[in-house]
């Protein structure tokens, strides 16, 4: 092998250092870095390898100095390689991070279902008259759904075809999904003494065929007031107040004589809608026999109660012609409220 002078060996080392550090420091992607690694530090034909081979061509006296320069070059290239790897790994990690400078996108949030909106609004209106919101169970016994409300064993309202009875062990009294919220009147009167003003809004169930004004699961708002001296005039005033607060002062309402086993006298409460009268619910003065059955003294207190269909008053308020629309879960319909 021809002899190589220390001077030309050192200038080759210097050229290699400059080119290697430049390539490694500017590598912007993994493949650039890998190309530079192979070119300068490749085990078989890298530039470091070929410079190392030239060490043997130096004069014997120059080899220690040449070896020192070579080792410095090797250390510098190894350090630059590691620094470039760390830098590119950091860039890759930053690319996965959240870019807080990106512009925002519209965020779609839902809202409360119109029936729940109606329930909350009715609760709020009734609270202004001092009516406290209470709840009752949806699975009921026959005492609270019928008997305590003077709906006797032979009454057609107890027919299995008109109720969702639940299967029970032989001999036990069947429970049922409550068919009216009037059950809550009894439950509260059993627990509390008069005076009381309560309102209860919740689901009730009847095997009715679904149509524009009926659904097998629907909601009722039940109101009950028991105080000394309560009269039918109070009942009418409260229902008018509820109707005009919820629907606006120009709503027309009417009371029609009717019959419920647990109120006497009883009325139907209708609202005018599009030139027609639509039944919203039933109402009346709590029958003294019902008051006596829960331990109240009908000689000192009287009361009124009402039960309205929530879907019907919601339909009237929002101009919805078919209450089935409330339960089709069509977002295009629901997002209008
Ligand atoms: C009752 O349920 C009585 N508990 C109301 C009552 C309470 C009377 C307190 C006296 C004192 P009725 O069965 O008429 O009454 O139902 C009341 C209202 O519920 C109806 O006027 C109607 O608005 C609504 N409703 C009845 N069945 C359905 C149904 N299948 N789908 C939607 N709403 C209904």
Annotate the secondary structure layout.
Blueprint: H1 6-26, H2 30-41, H3 47-54, H4 63-96, H5 114-128, E1 132-133, E2 139-140, H6 142-145, E3 164-165, E4 176-177, H7 182-191, E5 196-205, E6 217-227, H8 232-247, E7 253-260, E8 263-273, E9 276-286, H9 288-293, E10 302-309, H10 310-318, H11 331-334
Parallel strand pairs: 1-5
Antiparallel strand pairs: 2-4, 3-4, 5-6, 6-10, 7-8, 8-9, 9-10
Helix pairs in contact: 1-2, 1-3, 1-4, 2-4, 5-10
Can you describe this structure?
This protein is an alpha+beta fold. The protein folds into 2 domains: 92 residues, no CATH class; 221 residues, Bira Bifunctional Protein, Domain 2 (BirA Bifunctional Protein, domain 2, 2-Layer Sandwich), CATH 3.30.930. The protein contains 11 helices and 10 strands. A hairpin with a 2-residue loop joins strand 8 and strand 9. Helix 1 runs antiparallel to helix 2, helix 1 packs antiparallel against helix 3 and helix 1 packs parallel to helix 4. It is rod-shaped. The mean pLDDT is 94. The site of adenosine-5'-[phenylalaninyl-phosphate] has 23 residues, from strand 6, strand 9, strand 10 and helix 10.
